[in-house]
Design a protein that fits this description.
Blueprint (H helix, E strand, L loop, with lengths): L8 E5 L3 E6 L6 E8 L6 E5 L7 E3 L5 E3 L5 E4 L2 E3 L3 H10 L4 E5 L12 H10 L1 E7 L3 E2 L4 E5 L2 E6 L4 E7 L8 E6 L2 H8 L5 E3 H9 L12 E4 L2 E3 L9 H14 L6 E8 L3 H23 L25 H7 L11 E6 L2 E7 L19 H16 L9 E12 L8 E12 L2 E10 L2 E13 L5
Parallel strand pairs: 4-9, 11-19, 14-19, 16-17
Antiparallel strand pairs: 1-10, 2-3, 3-9, 4-5, 6-7, 7-8, 12-13, 13-19, 14-15, 17-18, 20-21, 21-23, 22-25, 23-24, 24-25
Helix pairs in contact: 1-2, 1-5, 5-6
Length: 455
Amino acid sequence: MRLDPAVLNQQTLRGPAKFSGVGLHGGRPVRMTLLPAPAGTGVRFRRVDLEGRPEIEALVDHVGDTQRSTTLAKGNTTVHTVEHVLAALAGCGVDNAVVELDANEPPIADGSALAFSRAIDEAGIAPQSEPREVYSLGAPLELSHGETHFALFPSDRLKITCTSADQAGRYTQYFSVEISPDTWRAELARARTFCFFEEIEHLYKNGLIRGGSLESAVVIRDDAVLTTEPLRYPNEFVRHKILDLLGDLSLLGRPLHAHIVAMRPSHDANCELVRRIQAQMRRPREAAQTFAPPPHARPAAGAEALVRDGAGLDVVQVMKILPHRPPILMVDRVTHIDGNRITATKSVSINEPYFAGHFPGHPILPGVLQLEAIAQVAGILMLKQAENFGKLAYFMAADEVKWRKPVHPGDTLTVEVELMRVRGKVGKARGVCSVNGDPVSEAVVTFMLFLPGEP
């Protein structure tokens, strides 16, 4: 998925990348041009053959059909078979691009993503100034969808382990790969699409594969493999399944770090998996937004002198800096400030009002309030920089969220935060909450700085 862990900023194309051919399913001639796009654009498909040149964002919300390929639809505009182009953009590390088409699907080329990948490489990759916002899977996820089964685990990169086979168990293949631009080009980009001979008549009668041939697909008939050239990999079929999955995963709209174990993936199941990841991705963000400070609040006069290296702050001084007030004030004391690190504490009392409902007879500090504590402590640290004083930090996202142990009344929550980076208005910090030295939760929070009343 936009994939190189070493690349911290978004990327686009240096110039146009062009390719022409015929569409796989419609069989019509098509000219495709990949264009650079501003940071934050994502990938968009533009139908230049239609009035108004309508665009469709490459997001799972716009998936209209998944029969044998992935189709995007928005209003009366559709684009079929987008997965190979999306896989090439993702594999090469392109975050932002516009895909112009003068027909309703990209060229099929040789059934792989090799031609698209080469066109992208010839155009070149251009770095952009805005940070790349990766979603790291926060908790294991499992999905069974028809004959497909997925198991996902947190990871610091994207890794896909896949097993593919038909219903009869023919050509069962296995492959596992960590995704990067290098592994994309060497291990996946050349893998061609394939089908079984007995499927061809049904597909053709249903208006599909009209542009297909042995030059653009591998056909399996009984125990024979029909192709115009030898197989490009001994396990080419499972590698193409990973290629398709990579393209469909890009419909999340942002890079993903996770280890995905897939059994017999399909486009329908792939897109359902993206929806499940999207739901997990939104949960901590929605919870965090509940605790955003009011737009009129601002630190008290003279508070800027309090935030300095070596300083400790009591709760009265904390309230001169933060706009929060009980019961949402989650910092009682700042014990240490050193460079881009800060440590604070929160005494958890049975008198906290949320314990009445969370949970009666078994009081536990809500995990979202631990996340809020990390954000508040990060907000204090931001005020060390003079240009940030008087601004408020609003939550944008929470990633890599893990709640490890329950926190009970009587515990003292220690919150340690490290500011990772600030670029323009956007900052990112990593926080860990612990009790008696044992980690109970952690997260990476992203926030945007605003002056009070600023839109």
